[in-house]
Each structure stands twice: as C-alpha cells, then as structure tokens.
Amino acid sequence: MYSVWLSEDEQRVWRNYLSMTGRLQAAMNRQLQRDCGLSLAEYEVLVALDERAGCRISELGDRLGWEQSRLSHQLTRMRTRGLLRRDGSSDDRRVATVDLTPAGRRALETAAPGHAELVREIVFEGVTPAELRAVDRWTTAVLGRLGEVQ
C-alpha cells in the first residue's frame, strides 16, 4: 500500500528532477537564442523533422508530446520565418505534412553543434556508463508508463 505522500528520498529526487529539467530547458533556450536565434521549441521541431522528413502534422504532435494548439501556433511562426513548409490539406492536420526548408536545414546545422556541446557538458559530463544505463532504464520505464496512461 502506498502512502499519500512521497517518501523523503522520493520527494528529494522528484524536486531535484523538476528543478533540473526547468533549469536545463532555460539553459538550452538561452544557448540556442544566443548562438543562432532559435528557441528551444523551434529546435525541437527542426530535429523532429530532420529525423522524419515529410512528417504528418498529427504524427509530429505525437512525437513531440505537444497539444494541437501549441503545435499549430509553433508551425505557423516557423513557416513565417521560412524554416519549414506545409504541404497537403490546409484544414486537416491528419493529412497535411511539414518539412524543413533549406533555411530550416541550415538553422538546424548551425544550432546542433552548440546544443550538443551544452548537453554533453551539463548532462553527461562525469556520468559513468553504468549510470547512463540506469538513467536510460528509468526514463524508458517512465515513458512506457506514460504511454499506457494516454
């Protein structure tokens, strides 16, 4: 039987996790803005489209874990900036696809090295292979349970 409250250890880990993810997202956003004028959200979309060219908008939303309204607004802003193009139905996101433009690909290629360096330095510096495998198992299990909840 579970207690209503988190244990002391669970509470400490949970609060550290929340603080870490919030601060890490802020650091990544600052680095991307400073180095290449992209937001973290724009970078996430560019990476997702690089991994799956011609992605359906509905699939992109699922891959990013974003609500439709957030994705729609983000894609509109990025299209206006010339970073991506939309093809297919203008009113049915299940049929419409998005893809990187040459400007979007250049933006990603400019942003990726600094982003990877920041993540490597902050997240992976000093982490042993065993620790990395343990974190991988933990995050995979959590993501699996989240998939079951949806």
UniProtKB/TrEMBL annotation:
Q: Name one GO molecular function term.
A: DNA-binding transcription factor activity
Source organism phylogeny: Bacteria, Bacillati, Actinomycetota, Actinomycetes, Mycobacteriales
Note the SUPFAM superfamilies from the entry.
Winged helix' DNA-binding domain
Q: To which species is this protein native?
A: Mycolicibacterium sediminis
Report domain HTH marR-type positions. 10-144
GO-annotated biological processes: response to stress
Highest taxon above the source species: Bacteria
**Per its record, how is this protein called by name?**
MarR family transcriptional regulator
Q: Which Pfam families match?
A: MarR
Recorded hits in Gene3D superfamilies, A to Z, give: Winged helix-like DNA-binding domain superfamily/Winged helix DNA-binding domain
Matching InterPro entries:
HTH_MarR-typ, MarR/SlyA-like, WH-like_DNA-bd_sf, WH_DNA-bd_sf
